[in-house]
Amino acid sequence: MPAETGPTAEPTTGPTQTERWTPRRGATGRLLAAELRLVLGRRRNQVFVAGLGLVPALLGLMLYLTRDDPRTSEGPGFLTQATNNGVFLVVASLFMCLPFLLPLTVALATGDAVAGEASAGTLRYLLVLPVSRSRLLFAKAVGALALVAVAVGVVATVGLVVGAALFGLHDVVLLSGTTVPLAEGMLRVLGVVVYIGLSLTGLVVVGLFVSTLTEVPIAAMVATVVVAVVSTILDTLPALSAVHPYLLTHYWYGFAELLRLEVDWNTVGTGLGLQVAWVVVFGAFAWSRFTQSNISS
Amino acid sequence: MSDDLAVATRGLTKRFRSGQVAVDAIDLEVPRGAVYGFLGPNGSGKTTTIRMLLGLVRPTAGEVELLGRPMPQAAAQVLGPVGALVEGPAFQPYLTGRANLVRLDACDPSADPATRDARIDAALARVGLAAAGGKKFRQYSLGMKQRLGLAATLLRPRELMVLDEPTNGLDPQGTREVRTLVRELADEGTTVLVSSHLLAEIDQVCTHLGVMSTGRLVLQGGRADLAGQRPRRVEITTTAAHLPTARRVLAEQGLTDIRVPAVGPDIRVPAVGPDIRVPAVGPDIRVPAVGPDVRDDGAAGTATRLTAVLDGVATPAITKALVEAEVAVAALHVREPSLEEVFVELTGEGFDVAR
Question: What's the CA gap between B340 and B235, in Å, rounded?
Answer without folding.
Answer: 18
